[in-house]
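Predicting holo structure, adenosine-5'-triphosphate bound.
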Amino acid sequence: MIKLRDIHKAYKTEFTSLQVLKGIDLDIQEGEFASIMGSSGSGKSTLLNILGILDEYDSGEYHLAGQLMKDLSEKQAAYYRNQFIGFVFQSFNLLNFKTAVENVSLPLYYRKVDRKLRHEKAMHYLEMVGLKDWAGHLPTQLSGGQQQRVAIARSMVTEPKVLLADEPTGALDTKTSHEVMGLFQKINEQGKTVLIVTHEQDIAKVTERIIEIQDGVILTPQQV
Ligand SMILES: Nc1ncnc2c1ncn2[C@@H]1O[C@H](COP(=O)(O)OP(=O)(O)OP(=O)(O)O)[C@@H](O)[C@H]1O
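Done. Tokens:
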């Protein structure tokens, strides 16, 4: 599903260049449930943003579902992102003036899905995350864990093949974190490829595979 070869990425300003990814090689098979672990600044989010086609890389190759992701136009990038990727963020990124069901259905609005179908699908995914009865609530009326569930439902509503989550439990307490991880597990069991960035060992342990990143490279199993 995902194949990275010798990926390099630097953040450049006029006078400085910070090399963040220094030759990433990684294969993720369809249906995997994996986490990317590493200390702060090791390049986890940078890597996830490249995987999610939210950012570009400088050199190397990224193949998503057999397709090389390089020099894409805005339109092409949006196409692959919409087609393949769901994204969940640490800070939920919900619209506070929209209800839970409106938040979940928003990606379908952008896809010009008609109102009735949008609502049906959004309700289906809200039910999947256990929030059917909270559909009419605003994010501010929900707990952090509930808000993250809404965000997960929103990421699933377009039926992506790959779900990427950047520190999805970073703003949650331990109990709620494990409930949210249980939800990712359930989503993975339904056949989705799920990749989670975390710096917490006990969160990573929930996944089937832990990928360790250190100073811009992935450690081999022998190094971990
Ligand atoms: N847009 C940017 N412009 C310049 N430097 C950046 C940018 N984004 C990240 N960096 C720098 O790149 C390095 C890696 O950042 P990244 O966010 O990928 O690390 P991380 O492993 O996800 O860290 P954390 O766990 O703290 O989120 C850091 O030194 C960071 O300051």
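Residues 11, 18, 20, 38, 40-46, 199 surround adenosine-5'-triphosphate (CB under 6 Å).
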